[in-house]
Amino acid sequence: MATRRILTDSPFDTLEKTFRLLVTGPRPLALEGEAVTGLPQRLIPLDELKAILLHPSTSYQVRDETLAELVRRARDSESWMVGLAAVVLPGVRSVVWSLVQACPDRAEDVEAETLAGLVAAIRDIDVSRPRIAVRLLWRSRKAAKRLVRLELAEQGRPATSPVPGAPPQPWGHPDLVLIEAVGRGVVAADGAELIGATRLGDVGLDEAATALHVGYWAAHKRRSRAEAAVVGWLASEDTAPSTLSKRKSSDPILLLRVDLGRDCEPDRRPEARRSNRRTRR
User: Fold this and answer.
1) Where are the alpha helices (DSSP H) in 23-88?
2) CB under 8 Å to 173, separation ≥6 — which residues?
3) DSSP per-residue codes, 187-227
4) Whole-angstrom Cα distance, residue 107 to residue 73?
5) Mapping DSSP to helix (H, G, I), strand (E, B) and coil, where does residue 141 land?
6) Within a 10 A sphere around the Cβ of 193, how many other Cβ atoms?
7) For strand 30-32 and strand 43-45, is the pairing parallel, antiparallel, or unpaired?
8) How far apart are CA 281 and CA 276, in angstroms?
9) What pLDDT digit, counting tens, does each position of 85-139 carry?
10) Which stretch of DSSP H or E encloses residue 43?
11) How far apart are CA 125 and CA 10, in angstroms?
């Protein structure tokens, strides 16, 4: 049985310790499963809920609905704010790992700034839009990156995010690859969100186009440009993302549905699919 890592007094570890106190004892902080379709229909302690949300079998819809419920509660309760922050902490650790390594002497300051950005994001994030976890992580990393840039500028070094080694797990998750692509300026946040929602999630490109208030083919071109930028970045040996520094059998490139040898197959509009079915008949 794996032993738990000894926690320090760093901001991230302090959050983890506080979370453990909230989910232990006779009355742990818990969510009623009935609040979200797809969760076990019982009271679920938040440490168990965290494991459920991180499991690959949990759908994006269940994750979004659960996080939306946690966000609403966090806005009214400090305990739920701590609970939600701890639930997304594994992703937060991964997306700011390279920033912490860039300024190891300011690691605690970077972590504190990250959590401040996370709290601010929780307070004003639009829970009606999909991919809540990804957007929370983007906002958290953005807050930390500002601090790191200032620190590196003061030290007279380039304001980049050097990556001397492999980040902590969960490395390799496609969402984290996209987040790092945004952080490195490879692709804009809206382009990465469009890839994530339509390639990895359950949102059709026609639905995304409607939400963006653009035509279907305009959305298609926007996504193609973003995908081309990500493909080039993933293929480059000189700028390999830290999230790909280790690989398992489930290669992030495949998880992103990007084939380096050819373009991604475009979505077809619903009416085009119906027309093709009639033609084949």
Assistant:
1) 46-54, 60-74, 78-87
2) 91, 94, 243, 252, 255
3) S-HHHHHHHIIIIISS--HHHHHHHHTS-HHHHHHHHHHHH
4) 30
5) helix
6) 24
7) antiparallel
8) 9
9) 999 999 898 888 878 888 888 999 999 999 999 999 999 999 998 889 888 988 8
10) strand 43-45
11) 26
